[in-house]
Here is the input.
Amino acid sequence: MLETALAVLGILILAGLVAVARFALRLRRELAAARVRTPSTITLEPIAGAAWARESTGRSDGEAFEQAGFQRVGSFEVPEMPGVELVGWAHPGERLYGVTYNHAAAGVWSDVVARYADGTGDTASSARHGGELDQPPWSRKAHEPGAPAVRLLEIAATWPAAGRLEATVEGFVEDFRDAYAREMAWRNERGGPSREEIARVAEGMEVRFSAADIDQAYDQQRRQTLGRLRDECVEALAATGVRGSGGSSLDQLSLLVIHDQMSRAEAIDELGIVVELPEELMESVEAEGGGDPPVRELVRELVGDLPVHQRLRLLGSVADPVGADVWEVPDGF
Here is the structure.
């Protein structure tokens, strides 16, 4: 039920590797057109129909779900992930969910999902991408890229039936959103894909990548993850009604966002972009190394030591999607 996140995240990593390798013009265009994103939370919006669900894989998987006794929930799009559409299925008797997805770059794939009272879950997926990524400790996932839904249902038949949570037509949307948010919160806490995950994605590609290539792709993913978290933290603070000087909305201001997934070096670099930090101060911070004090506390101390005319104004803090401080940067910086 979460392979929409994993498959698209796999595509995002693939896009970075393609950019590093500078090959396959058609594939690069396909990935660019897909506008891949992996937001921390999503919504499902009903759509009138999904033509792809009546063609080829979408049709055969839908028929397999129907023949297995699943009830069709409906067709949905995910506004936060352009290009992602899905058809939901529920089997209240077996307490299983089924999902068939379509994405411009990832293609069509399906999941079968069981959730348990102890917080764990089983998923069988036919997604082409995402199987190389680490899984949360509560998640057990079987990946068979390109497998038909019939095969996924065979895998599901081996799962324990005891302790399964309900799977209903009425509960599908909320359960889907909650499961997605839970996994993305775990991935956010890890700071995005690791070098090891990117290396595993690279192993499945046609070209060979050097360690430098993997590092470059990792750095790109890291920047994208930090940028996404920054934007989501600003949106979270704006949703509380906080405004800047003169009543300005946050999107009208120059802002500095320091969040818990940033390293000390990343936080200092961000601060150094908006204010002039004395060289001796930079050297002392770099010499300290380590993780004490925590990054947000460190930046608060540094801002407190700045000349008055350079002082930033702390607009507020948020806890989700990650802990963060949002600062207003004075005019002229």
The longest helix spans residues 211-238. Confidence is low (pLDDT under 50) at residues 17-35. The first strand starts at residue 45 and ends at 46. The radius of gyration is 22 Å.
